[in-house]
Write a structure and sequence with these properties.
Layout (H helix, E strand, L loop, with lengths): L2 E8 L5 H9 L11 E7 L7 E8 L2 H8 L2 H6 L16 E8 L9
Antiparallel strand pairs: 1-3, 1-4, 2-3
Bound molecules: protoporphyrin IX containing FE.
Length: about 110
């Protein structure tokens, strides 16, 4: 069953564009991760400062394997202030865990 792991990143007032720029230059290492089913970077459009990195995985094991992998480290080479992306862009981030309880699709 697909699991959804969301990184909720809170950025400073003017930090959103920088976050989007960094994701625009992302490593793309996650794209090859076993069990990776996709991700979206969601930009708030109601004035709040929290952006959502919504990732989908085949199962929890696949997510945990990615987080523990060199691909995660490579994909986050700029996070935390080291490397060419300094300074850190996030004020705060937290991991949210979801699964689809009910879904609906438009009639074909
Ligand atoms: C300490 C917490 C974290 C922060 C501050 C953070 C921030 C970022 C930033 C700024 C990037 C853009 C690339 C870069 O600048 O190097 C990135 C990449 C990414 N982050 Fe995070 N992240 C964190 C943890 C997580 C977690 C827990 C997830 C999963 C839910 C996640 C999912 C992703 C994905 C999918 C990418 C693209 C990686 C790639 O292209 O290979 N991040 N993150």
């Amino acid at each position: 069953m697909t699991v959804i792991r969301i990184n909720a990143i809170t950025v400073p007032e003017q930090g959103g564009d920088e976050l989007a720029r960094r994701f625009g230059e992302r490593a793309g290492a996650v794209d090859h991760a076993e069990g990776f089913e996709g991700f979206e970077l969601l930009r708030p459009t109601d004035g709040r400062g929290t952006w959502l990195v919504v990732t989908r995985w085949r199962d929890e094991e696949a997510f945990q394997a990615w987080v523990a992998s060199p691909a995660f480290a490579h994909g986050h080479r700029g996070v935390g202030g080291e490397g060419e992306h300094s300074p850190p862009v996030a004020l705060h981030s937290e991991l949210w865990s979801y699964e689809v309880a009910i879904e609906a699709r438009p009639e074909a």
